[in-house]
């Protein structure tokens, strides 16, 4: 089964609380999502392998460390996942960015795909899938399946707020995928919204409510 890492760093927790408030407007909401994504990226890349290299400082040769292993890719689930991209790229600027377009049918809550474009060398990369909300888990599960179908082997999923139902679904469908979450909430309501959650992440990011 995939691991679930709850990122309980105080800065992340504080910023998530600000994000939840209905009084937080789109500008601040966008800034917070980017900042939290950056902090989560820092935590979720802790286990990246390093190799020893030699660098020449102005004073002497030094043995130093550099990232080794596979290159990284990030794949936001459109739309709301877009809000997390810059936070990741701030720390991993060489990552390539793919996009998966999915929206959740408001009646059936099933994900509907409308776009998929991944880096040509995605199978050679470790892929971080981004979406602020993991509710039923349908969107994340479908996105991860598309990415696996393109030959990617190592996938992690980063989200800001998750419902237990989404975690369970993702663990069942993709037990090989580790989940990084800033907050684990209580439940879903009858409309598939996370309670207490933060409302509709896409609408709050882009001001489309
Ligand atoms: C939201 C969210 C996830 C999905 C989560 O997207 O960003 O992608 O719902 O729900 P699920 O776990 O039940 O699938 P939405 O469908 O509202 O599209 P948007 O990002 O374009 O607003
Ligand atoms: N998508 C959102 O944006 N918010 C929720 O609470 C559930 C799905």
Automatic annotation (TrEMBL):
**InterPro entries, per the entry:** PRTase-like, PRTase_dom, Upp_B, UPRT, UPRTase/APRTase
Catalysis: reaction(s):
UMP + diphosphate = 5-phospho-alpha-D-ribose 1-diphosphate + uracil
Q: What class of enzyme is it?
A: transferase
Q: In which pathway does it act?
A: Pyrimidine metabolism; UMP biosynthesis via salvage pathway; UMP from uracil: step 1/1
Q: How is its activity regulated?
A: Allosterically activated by GTP.
What's one GO-annotated cellular component? cytoplasm
Query: Any note on cofactor binding?
Result: Binds 1 Mg(2+) ion per subunit. The magnesium is bound as Mg-PRPP.
Which superkingdom does the taxonomy of this entry point to?
Bacteria
Which GO molecular function annotations are given, in alphabetical order? GTP binding; magnesium ion binding; uracil phosphoribosyltransferase activity
Q: What is its EC number?
A: 2.4.2.9
The cofactor(s) it depends on are: Mg(2+)
Q: Which SUPFAM superfamilies match?
A: PRTase-like (SSF53271)
Q: Which residues form the Phosphoribosyltransferase domain?
A: 6-208
Coiled coil location: none
- Residue positions annotated to bind uracil are 194, 199-201
State the function annotated in the UniProt record.
Answer: Catalyzes the conversion of uracil and 5-phospho-alpha-D-ribose 1-diphosphate (PRPP) to UMP and diphosphate.
| Protein name, UniProt field | Uracil phosphoribosyltransferase
Q: From which organism does this entry originate? A: Defluviitalea raffinosedens
State the taxonomy lineage.
Bacteria, Bacillati, Bacillota, Clostridia, Lachnospirales
Gene of this entry: upp
